Each structure stands twice: as structure tokens, then as C-alpha cells.
Protein: Biotin carboxyl carrier protein of acetyl-CoA carboxylase
Organism: Methylobacterium frigidaeris
Amino acid sequence: MALKTIQAPIPGTFYRAANPGDPPFKAENDPVAVGDTIGLIEVMKTFTPVVAEEAGTLKVFHVENEDAVMAGQPLYDLEG
């Protein structure tokens, strides 16, 4: 199976859950379907969902919850 690295579409702060204390949208080794929300990127109190464009299995996150990310920075690996 091919491993694909998904990159941040915009710069900001990456969140793995919608709110503090909520379970993460996805965890490592979770199945991912097209359209699933993987996380959120916040810029100036505006939250942009990171949505899966391909199906597969989320293998590893490259960033932690609340990490600052730059556009083009690797977010996670998807095996499909």
C-alpha cells in the first residue's frame, strides 16, 4: 500500500479536536473516508477544517495538538 504525506493547506494552529477535552477527530491507525475531518487549523479565531480528500488509514501525525504549522508542512501520513 502507498503511503502519502498530507500537508497543511494554510498556516495557523493545528487542533486535533473541536474543543479542549473532546476526543480527537482521528487517531493514528484510524480508518479515514473521503470527507472525514482530520483536524482544524485556526487563524485569527477562524477555524478551517482539514478534510480528507482520499480514503485510507491514518498512520502517523507529524504535528502535535496546538502546534503552529506553516502552509505545506507535513500534517499526517495516509496509507491507502
About this structure: The chain has no helices and eight strands. The chain has one domain: 3-79.
